[in-house]
Amino acid sequence: MINRVLIRTRVLQVAYAHLHRGELKLTAAEQDLLLSLHRTYDLYLFLLQLIPSFTEFYREVLEIRKNKHLATKAERSPNLRLLENRLAAKLAASEKLNTWYEGFSLRWEEDEALLRHLLRRIEASDIYANYLKATEVGFEEDRAFWVDVFTQIIATDEMLAEWLEQHSIYWQDDLREVEKAEVEDRPATEDEALQAALNEAREAGAYQSARLENGPVEVVKDFVEKTLRKSEEDTAIDDDIRPAFKDEDDERFARLLFRQTLLKYNDQMKLIEPVLSAGWSSERLADIDALLLNLAVTEFLYFPLIPTQITINEYVELAKHYSTNHSASFVNGVLDALARKLKEEGKILK
Questions:
Q1: What count of Cα atoms within 13 Å lies in the side-chain half-sphere of residue 263?
Q2: CA atoms of 212 and 177, how far apart (whole Å)
Q3: pLDDT tens column, 239-260
Q4: How far is CA 301 from the centre of its chain?
Q5: pTM for this structure?
Q6: Phi and psi angles of residue 277, each rounded to the nearest 5 degrees, phi first
């Protein structure tokens, strides 16, 4: 599940934090990287677990409604289709998911307010109404219901996004958007100073916000949807749940990309410096741009099986989301020139 796009994003984030927290040892920073990747995988499993946990909560709600003093006819004899959803039952029976959930620190069941909020949104939706009145009954319809609920309601819910952000620093911000502003001086971290800098940037036309389509949480959301869509009635759900890493190469890629970039940072900046445009010395580079270029150089030099153009494209995309308005074209130009130069010098053999 943790693909190369997600790995590059997490390496960028953790390496940036490490470079601005010089007291942290490299081994500790590497552990922070691996923790961030595994917490991202935890989010994938946690969102899958929401479906059986929600179903059990829904069972309790129907029972309470049924037994209340002035229960309506519909409450006394509710439509049980959602309760008997076959996809939810498969997830509830997953040995892999159950084993993981038993050892995880968070419980959906412990936040009744959040579950009630999601229940209200689901019951008010056309997805729910159409599902209950549909004449076709089968696994495909049950699967389609949860795919639609997840993509249209759960994955976009603001209250859920805030809840996730509150419970893990690795689940922050990426559900919505990133704000970027160009300012002369870095603002202080206090909210008022930061907000003043953002307002000034907006007025000067030096501000933009962009949805983080390739942010870690967005990648997780995409994989949850793919897992739900892939499930078939006659296959084991555990076969559909993706492992943390596709193979050992991806975990090695994360470690080596992170470690080599930080260990060789100054040496690689000496390779980057001659390619920069006139007036753009390494001292004038934005910190994030310097790191993006450095990460790409690491891939150029130490990953012979990754084509240079793929590396360039990946870091241009990261520049669009994490740096200034003009950084994508700048990073693209520098990396293209640098790749040609390193090939001519025999430093890239691919």
A1: 11
A2: 5
A3: 999 999 988 899 999 999 999 9
A4: 27
A5: 0.83
A6: -65, 160
Long-range contacts of 302-309 (CB under 8 A, 24+ apart): 302/256, 302/257, 302/260, 303/253, 303/256, 303/257, 304/349, 304/350, 305/350, 306/350, 307/350, 308/339, 308/343, 308/348, 308/350
What does the mean pLDDT of the chain come to?
A: 88
- For 190-212, the pLDDT digits (tens) are 556 656 766 776 677 665 544 44
Tokens of 162: 């805030």
User: For residues 188 and 174, what is the distance between their CA atoms, to the nearest angstrom?
Assistant: 22
The average pLDDT across 292-301 equals 97
Q: Are 118 and 259 in contact (CB under 8 A)?
A: no
203-230 burial, b if ≥16 CB within 10 A, otherwise e? eeeebeeeebebbbbbbbbbbbbebbee
- Distance from C-alpha of 21 to C-alpha of 59, rounded to nearest angstrom: 49
From 13, 30, 48, select the one nearest 254 (Cα to Cα): 30
**Dihedral sign from CA coordinates of 35, 41, 44, 47:** negative
Q: Contact at 8 Å (CB) between 319 and 328?
A: yes
Rounded CA-CA distance 302/304 in Å is 6
Residue where the block lists tokens 């994003």: 9
pLDDT band of residue 178 (cuts 50, 70, 90) is very low
Q: What is the pLDDT of residues 45-80, one digit of tens each?
A: 999 999 999 999 999 999 999 998 888 988 899 999
Q: CB neighbours (10 Å) of residue 161? A: 18
Looking at residues 73-93, what average pLDDT do you find? 94
Mention every residue, 6+ apart, whose C-beta is less than 8 A from residue 278: none
Burial category of 88 from C-beta neighbours within 10 Å (exposed 0-12, middle 13-18, buried 19 and up): buried
Distance, CA of 204 to CA of 107 (rounded, Å):
46
